[in-house]
Design goal:
The chain has helices spanning 5-10, 15-47, 65-76, 79-93, 96-107, 124-151, 155-163, 168-198, 210-221, 225-258; strands spanning 117-118, 122-123. It is mostly helical. Strands 1-2 form a two-stranded antiparallel ribbon. Helix 2 (15-47) crosses helix 6 (124-151) and helix 9 runs antiparallel to helix 10 (225-258). The termini are far apart.
Length: 259
Amino acid sequence: MTISWSNITKLLNYSNMFQQGLIVTVLLALCTVFFGFFLAFGLALMLLSDVRPLRHLEKIKTDDMERKKRLDFIARFNPVKFIASAYVQFVRCTPMLVQIFLVYYIVFGYVTLPKFTFLGFIQFERFFPAAVALALNSGGYMSAVIRGGIEGVDGGQTEAARSLGMSKGQTMFHIILPQAVKNILPAVANEFVTIIKESSVCYTIGVQDIMFNVKSVQSATFIIAEPLLMATFLYFCLCYPTSKIIEHVERRMRQSDNR
């Protein structure tokens, strides 16, 4: 398989398709990070929760040590944390492609989405399930980042806020979260770069992203290598500047912390 300049010039006739794929990829990444962040925030709160509906069992006194251990184990059970942990492990232990198929063919297989296009070329009935699947995946990964950011805030500040009469909710939203967001912002921005690359699998369900248009050009021209090089160039142009901007923001944040 050879790469020729004539084949590259032929791709100029399909520049509009690559431009549309670029727009779809960026929109998909933006929607994923936005909605995935709120899902991750909810999961992080669930993982940090202390909901133990059977905690009263640990107060039961018995001379049977085995029974006491069983009662203590049941008393420690947190169903909210268990559900969040199970979800995160499912996301981390299954391929994203499988998750996209599950959402598109099974979840939305029972839901009739309106069929229309926006921006003139994006099919909503394919774009929306892809965005949902990616957001569900991203939320599972970012939940650990957000939980770490919340746990990284000095516990003394929580104690000081509670001593001033603030509730748990007030302490979380007025004291902990503003500091935690600053800590996790670079990781969330890095997730945007990751999603740009991982969204390439969405072409398998007909989302008109960069890879979908690469496959279309290959089918129309029987040119294999050059469209793939174009996709590589486009992904690089998206990810490299974004990663450099993130590094610059991280340096500025570290400088402000040292003042």
